[in-house]
Amino acid sequence: SGGHAMEDPLLTDSFSGRAETPRHATLQESQTGGKKVEEKFYDQEVAKLVLRLERKDRTDIENVKMFTGFTENAYRFFFAYEDNFPDVAPELRVILPSGKKENDKILEPKKEAAIIAYTYSQKMTDKKAAEVLQSQGSFFVFQKNGDPYVMQTWPN
């Protein structure tokens, strides 16, 4: 067809203006989860990718902007569904404040299965989508002071 596939920038050195990854790379313990891993147990392409990702992380960190006067406290509700309900596997929909459904997933009754949610509801921007979701019986979309709100939840 004559078209060219785009290369993933993480697989090349194009995402960073820094020096290219060396031809031969040896991974350090800090790059392998604190364990010494002999070179015979990993491919050079994997080692080079690790070095590129590490370099990208450093670049990303350098671009973080800090502001004074603000401290975020990120709280979440966590419901450990796990295998407490072995005969029930509900469909879990991630609904955004825009009304868009991000995904549908069956919450399987198994160890470590959980639902996570923000500790506050969010006002929905699309009233029609809210009406449709409410008519479908969504427990997570509701009216508050005459406006539609969503309790955004997602599986872990």
The biggest sheet, with number of strands, parallel, antiparallel or mixed sense and barrel status, is: 3 strands, antiparallel
Helix content: 10-25%
Low-confidence stretches: 1-6, 14-18
Output the strand order for the largest sheet. 1-4-8
Write the topology of this structure.
Elements: H1 44-62, E1 76-79, E2 91-95, E3 101-106, E4 115-118, E5 122-123, H2 127-135, E6 141-144, E7 147-150, E8 153-155
Antiparallel strand pairs: 1-4, 2-3, 4-8, 5-7, 6-7
Q: What can you tell me about this protein's structure?
A:
- Mean pLDDT is 83; it is low at 1-6 and 14-18.
- A three-stranded antiparallel β-sheet has the order 1-4-8, with no helix packed on it. A three-stranded antiparallel β-sheet has the order 5-7-6, with helices on one face.
- The protein has helices at 44-62, 127-135, and strands spanning 76-79, 91-95, 101-106, 115-118, 122-123, 141-144, 147-150, 153-155.
- It is 18% helix and 21% strand.
- It has two helices and eight strands.
- It is of the alpha+beta class.
- The two termini are 42 Å apart.
- A hairpin with a 5-residue loop joins β2 (91-95) and β3.
Top keywords for this entry?
disordered N terminus, 2 helices, elongated, 156 residues, alpha+beta, 3-stranded antiparallel beta sheet
Quick structural gist:
This protein is an alpha+beta fold and 156 residues long. It has helices at residues 44-62, 127-135; strands at residues 76-79, 91-95, 101-106, 115-118, 122-123, 141-144, 147-150, 153-155.
